[in-house]
Specification:
Blueprint lengths: L12 E4 L16 E8 L9 H14 L10 E7 L10 E4 L7 H9 L7 E9 L15 E2 L3 H4 L7 E5 L4 H7 L2 H9 L19 H7 L2 H15 L4 H11 L14 E6 L2 E6 L12 E3 L6 E5 L9 E3 L4 E6 L9
Parallel strand pairs: 1-13
Antiparallel strand pairs: 2-5, 2-11, 3-4, 3-5, 6-7, 7-8, 8-9, 9-13, 10-12
Helix pairs in contact: 7-8
Length: about 325
């Protein structure tokens, strides 16, 4: 495991974990969302640890309307080895709560079905933040599908976010180069409600009440990755640096937590403002005897086997353990 300083003026630690198992997080306070990510090591599949995968997905489902009232929708997705990507057949969303949801129950079985070949999965249950819809048609995780912007890299990226960022701040720091990039490649977020006609999505008449902050955050990260020719860590570094001065909103905590995935790994980032009354934890699980790695907002059990992700820390969970030897 290594730590590395990758930002000017403040610290982001990149923890490269050789043997992670599944995600966990625990808090007794309502946060905006709950996140889950898991990835099989080397050439393994999620079904090789089916009991653990089921427990994690069960826990996430219960948080979507039972143990916590994160009941404003859910999303699950997985990557499979024969395609090494997420496509529309592997993404499942619902605007209804996950708890006691038969559709969620069905999708959960796909993660441990050997015939589906799932090796990386992400999940999210949603609690709408201020100014966000409670009935979002397609909740995150969001998937990057604009192939012509990044060539072979484009369709491999997925993103889920825990927290709320002021959309006006995101648009303000995204200069005209970013907006031109969105216009050139026809990059548009999911629009909800009934926005006024004649405006682009990045104008306040639309984004203020009809766009989710998470998608703008995702676009911002992808924009910086694009400008760095697909270099994920440098792109994340630059995107986080751009928003480093943001005032957390609506609470001074965890507005920037996210899970990000490619076909070769998971990235989990946690940032909480100093002095916050709410910590919005994020954990990873490290077990050399397990075939999977993971990260989760609120894992099952008492968290004794889970490692706390410190503030300003980015954790990388690789598909191939050998890939970390030279990092």
């Amino acid at each position: 495991m290594k730590t590395q300083n990758i930002k000017k003026g403040w610290w982001i630690h990149i923890l490269i974990i050789a043997s992670l198992i599944l995600l966990t997080l625990s808090t007794n306070v309502q946060a905006e969302c709950r996140l889950l990510g898991m990835i099989a090591k080397d050439n393994n599949y999620l079904h090789t640890e089916s009991d653990m995968v089921e427990e994690l997905l069960d826990t996430l489902q219960a948080q979507g309307g039972d143990t916590y009232q994160y009941d404003d929708g859910w999303g699950l997705l997985y990557y499979k080895f024969n395609h090494l990507i997420v496509d529309t057949n592997n993404i499942y969303r619902d605007s209804l709560e996950a708890y006691e949801n038969s559709y969620y129950d069905t999708v959960q079985t796909y993660f441990i079905n050997p015939f589906r070949g799932a090796y990386l999965g992400m999940g999210h249950v949603r609690l709408a933040g201020p100014g966000q819809p409670s009935d979002l048609r397609d909740p995150h995780p969001f998937v990057w599908t604009f192939d012509d912007t990044l060539g072979d890299y484009a369709y491999r990226f997925t993103f889920a976010h825990n927290g709320t960022l002021k959309k006006s701040d995101l648009i303000t720091i995204a200069d005209s180069t970013f907006l031109h990039w969105c216009w050139e490649y026809e990059i548009e977020p999911q629009i909800f409600g009934d926005p006024p006609q004649g405006y682009d999505w990045w104008e306040p008449e639309v984004y203020a009440d009809h766009v989710v902050d998470t998608e703008i955050y995702f676009f911002l990260v992808m924009w910086r990755i694009y400008l760095n020719d697909g270099d994920i860590l440098t792109g994340m570094h630059e995107a986080l640096n751009l928003i480093s001065g943001f005032t957390q909103y609506p609470n001074p905590n965890t507005a920037k937590n996210f899970i990000f995935s490619t076909n070769t790994g998971l990235y989990a980032y946690r940032e909480v403002e100093a002095g916050s009354p709410i910590t919005y934890e994020l954990y990873y699980f490290n077990d050399t005897g397990c075939n999977i790695f993971g990260v989760m907002s609120d894992p099952p059990g008492n968290n004794e086997e889970w490692t706390y992700i410190n503030d300003g820390t980015l954790v990388y969970l690789p598909l191939f353990i050998s890939s970390i030897s030279s990092s």
